[in-house]
Amino acid sequence: FRSKQWYQRRVAITAGGAAGILGAFQSAVECGFSENLHAVLCIAENSVGPCAAVPDDIHILYSGKSVEINNTDAEGRLVLGDGVAYARKDLNADIVLDMCTLTGAQGITTGQHHAAVLTNNEKWESCAVKAGLSSGDMVFPIVYAPEVHFSEFKSSVADMKNSVANRSNAQCSCAGLFIGAHLFDDYFKPSPIVWIHVDMAYPVHIGERATGWGPALLLTLFGRYSTSSLLSDIAPVLPADQASKRAKHEEMC
Question: Is 33 helix (H, G, I), strand (E, B) or coil?
Answer without folding.
Answer: strand
